[in-house]
């Protein structure tokens, strides 16, 4: 309050946000009309500020960004010549709150290519609105990133999938989007992208093909699948009825992330590729005693991470500048 009267209000308040309307995570708790809704999100200038801060603090100029799913942050360890930023130190960045998400942004060279890796992502169930969940993707775009690779831990709905399989994401079902929960809701800034972006080609066909080529060269094509990822809000795992419903909808894997990041990346013209690591089988049978749990998810990630890491690094080696695949 005192700061406010002295003209030293924090930036949130200066932009018309009221400190009293925020949860402890800085998330707005109520708003009265569309124009106040418009002010309750990061602007283009906010993204630019964070991107410029990062560019001023590292010499790396990444063309590829990778978002690591639960327990898959080991990918960042493959980067050479690392520059590491804790999320808590990056201006305006949200903070990681989930086990298996370290909360570090790692710049470096992966297979000789300048790359930035998010060791830990943000989820809606942590209490973050989707414009916060997806803020890093817009920052990546402002850094000059052309290709986004997303990874996640997911439950297998397809009865043929086994725990430890890797699923190339061919397409997604945005379940929260059916109810209007979408990171692009609100005023559209054309500097990021068009009001109505297409999503029918969200997952790049050439990169999907490349994944199969690389897997076959690695001798692991037997455990490489390709299918549809369905994103739910979480944090609870699905009921049996929900899993049966999603299976009938045509989903092969189910999780609690990824889709908002992909929508924002496509909105700003980035090329997207994604993997689900099948960490558990979705429960579809009322007679079973099996239950999904995060400890199992992390343990499967730990066991299968090396294959996924190798696959990603070999793919990055073959991604050429300006979106061509070697
Ligand atoms: O960040 P991802 O999507 O990999 O994490 C999955 C979904 C939940 O966050 C968590 C559930 O075990 O793992």
From TrEMBL:
Superkingdom per UniProt: Eukaryota
Entry protein name: Uncharacterized protein
